[in-house]
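Justification of computing resources. Each target in the renewal requires a structure prediction run like the one illustrated here; the chain below, 284 residues long, is used simply to show the kind of job we budget for.
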Amino acid sequence: MKRILLSLLALFATQAEAQNLEKSLLWKISGNGIKEASYLYGTIHITCDATLPQKAVKALEATDQLYLELDMDDPTLQQSMMQSMMMKDGKTMSSLVSAEDFKIVDEFLTKQLGYSAQMLNTFKPFMISAMLYPKMIDCEMQSVEGNLMTVIKEQQEEVFGLESIEEQMNVFDAIPYEVQMKELVKTAKNNLAKDKQEMQLFLDIYKSEDINAMYAATQKSENEITSKYEEILLSNRNKNWIPIIEKVAKEKATFFGVGAGHLGGEMGVIQLLRKKGYKVEAVF
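Resulting structure tokens:
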């Protein structure tokens, strides 16, 4: 009975720790066979200010290579992405919605992107939603990943990826095209109003470095892709990354930069590494 009680207490402590991670985007990874500390940093793919905090710059200086979700300096990246943007099985956007809704999307995309929906008819709807991201912020778009790569190149170090573009794009084959199209129709009908509101929420949370709030916001999102397919979008990918992070961190001091939404929660990268026996500490 005593062992059972101790086990339950340990479980509750772990859950409480997962729910109350400190407010920090930068985390130090050590222990469990790691000789030199590596760092885990939560990024945001689109922002108005991608300036890296001094603590992140120091961590980059203390490490020997950069791992992002994708190898962003791979010369074949753009070509591979284009090959993966199309829906499978002959699906088209026009076949996923009514003629009336397709017309609304067509007019909206023509106005916002300069391309008709008919021209983009075979694209995965989420890919088109991603093309609209720059329209969701009232500034010139910047990228945290871009700034990380700039520093790494100045240090003459290498950039690698935790997953291939094919693996990342397959996520949007696993999420039903119908759901993706439903969200694109919603975006067209409200003319980006809701999307801008949610984007600003994520930007504000990111600025506060509150990864608990970031994870909670993804779960509460009105966008079904984000809220209802968290396992496909985040958890499964997190689990796939852990063996790579383990292997790489034991070989060389590494700076890992992944979307901040991947850090929080019981199935977030921080907790998954802790469950494997690594010490993962917030850096302030």
